[in-house]
């Protein structure tokens, strides 16, 4: 039954034509980006790069032209994303806003919200983070406790969020919080809000990872005042809205291209005459990448057709995460030198960095356990 979720979907010629435009941009702008920085790619924050990408109109590909976008389809955005990630471009500053915040606002936001936020996102100047996970909820999004209470013409928000990528560098957060009563059920009574992270009562505390990076953050809301127009979409319909948002988050090429800098460097070291074991592993990795790309493009086709590909997106994310986490291990198995932090060859440093970062790949966008629960339900197994 689920095989039809991944029907082959070739990239249309009109979208494919964008590839040369992106490559021309990268040929100019990537010269200053070193090999180790390229390993960070969609976690690499570079405001200048994002601004230049916005000037080149390579952000907001699917957004309406009246809002500063290009009015193209999901396949066009896929081509742009694929080229940026394959090159190791530092896209983290604008990535979340472009990938899911702007589409969410376009689908559910008011006209005023669209005009206020989307043009700045498309210019690469306005950054958003995601407020979903919470410290006491584990991987169960339906267990969140942050709450916004009606007060006059607005709301008052209390609670906290965790694993909020780039919250310390973002202007706004789109957060899922409770607004209804407990009798509405675990997935009922939730709403989404746009929160100004510079507002009184908002505190952001970075969480450092094994590499010393501070991509993740914990965010505290203490009696934060929200205006009426901070609400996105329909009050109480936040669960349905956030599920649509997560399908976008989980299905893109970033779910299997995070470690491309390592694969490129490894192939460069192995050269034109790898031994039998090296050839086997590189060939197997390449085959898995092509399969994941085909699956991801099938999900893109569903978005383009206006369908809900939540099950298929979860599948791409789960399998893609597995590949990303295995790649550093395979590199260590067949590599000709050991990973090293702060010294050694390009390959040794990239390998060390991604070995430390790889455990986080199965956290962001939904843990493996949650995703496999979704897959089991889709297959009728639970």
Strand and helix layout:
Layout: H1 13-16, H2 18-29, H3 35-38, H4 47-55, H5 74-87, H6 92-108, H7 111-122, E1 128-131, E2 147-151, E3 154-162, E4 172-178, E5 190-196, E6 202-207, E7 216-226, E8 231-232, H8 238-251, H9 260-270, H10 276-304, H11 310-334, H12 346-357, H13 368-378
Parallel strand pairs: 1-4
Antiparallel strand pairs: 2-3, 3-7, 4-5, 5-8, 6-7
Describe the structure.
- This protein is an alpha+beta fold and 382 residues long.
- It has three domains: 2-126, Butyryl-Coa Dehydrogenase, subunit A, domain 1; 130-237, Butyryl-CoA Dehydrogenase, subunit A, domain 2 (Beta Barrel); 252-378, Butyryl-CoA Dehydrogenase, subunit A, domain 3 (Up-down Bundle), CATH 1.20.140.
- It has helices at residues 13-16, 18-29, 35-38, 47-55, 74-87, 92-108, 111-122, 238-251, 260-270, 276-304, 310-334, 346-357, 368-378; strands at residues 128-131, 147-151, 154-162, 172-178, 190-196, 202-207, 216-226, 231-232.
- The chain has a four-stranded mixed beta sheet with strand order 1-4-5-8, with helices on one face. A four-stranded antiparallel beta sheet has the order 2-3-7-6, with no helix packed on it.
- β6 and β7 form a beta hairpin.
- α8 (238-251) runs parallel beside α11 and α10 (276-304) packs antiparallel against α11 (310-334).
């Amino acid at each position: 039954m689920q095989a039809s979720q991944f029907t082959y979907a070739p990239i249309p010629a009109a979208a494919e034509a964008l590839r040369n435009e992106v490559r021309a941009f990268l040929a100019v702008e990537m010269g200053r980006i070193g090999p180790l920085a390229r390993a960070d790619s969609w976690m690499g924050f570079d405001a200048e790069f994002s601004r230049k990408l916005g000037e080149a109109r390579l952000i907001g590909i699917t957004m309406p032209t009246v809002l500063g976008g290009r009015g193209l389809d999901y396949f066009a955005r896929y081509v742009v994303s694929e080229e940026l990630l394959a090159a190791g471009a530092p896209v983290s500053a604008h990535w979340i806003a472009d990938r899911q915040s702007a589409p969410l606002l376009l689908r559910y936001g008011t006209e005023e919200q669209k005009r206020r936020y989307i043009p700045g996102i498309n210019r690469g100047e306005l950054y958003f983070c995601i407020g979903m996970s919470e410290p006491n909820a584990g991987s169960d999004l339906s267990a969140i406790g942050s709450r916004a209470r009606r007060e006059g013409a607005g709301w008052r928000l209390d609670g906290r969020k965790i694993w909020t990528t780039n919250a310390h560098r973002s202007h706004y957060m789109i957060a899922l919080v409770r607004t209804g009563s407990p009798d509405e059920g675990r997935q009922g009574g939730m709403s989404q809000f746009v929160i100004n992270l510079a507002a009184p009562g908002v505190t952001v505390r970075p969480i450092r990872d094994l590499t010393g990076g501070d991509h993740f953050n914990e965010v505290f809301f203490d009696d934060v005042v929200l205006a009426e127009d901070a609400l996105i979409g329909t009050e109480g319909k936040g669960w349905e809205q956030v599920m649509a948002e997560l399908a976008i988050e989980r299905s893109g090429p970033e779910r299997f291209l995070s470690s491309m800098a390592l694969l490129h460097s490894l192939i460069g070291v192995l050269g034109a005459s790898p031994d039998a074991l090296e050839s086997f592993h590189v060939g197997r990795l390449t085959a898995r990448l092509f399969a994941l790309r085909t699956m991801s493009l099938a999900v893109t086709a569903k978005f383009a057709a206006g369908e809900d590909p939540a099950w298929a997106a979860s599948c791409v994310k789960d399998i893609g995460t597995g590949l990303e986490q295995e790649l550093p291990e395979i590199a260590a198995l067949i590599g000709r030198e050991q990973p090293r932090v702060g010294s050694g060859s390009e390959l040794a440093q990239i390998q060390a960095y991604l070995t430390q970062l790889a455990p986080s790949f199965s956290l962001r966008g939904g843990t493996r356990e949650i995703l496999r629960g979704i897959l089991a339900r889709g297959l009728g197994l639970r």
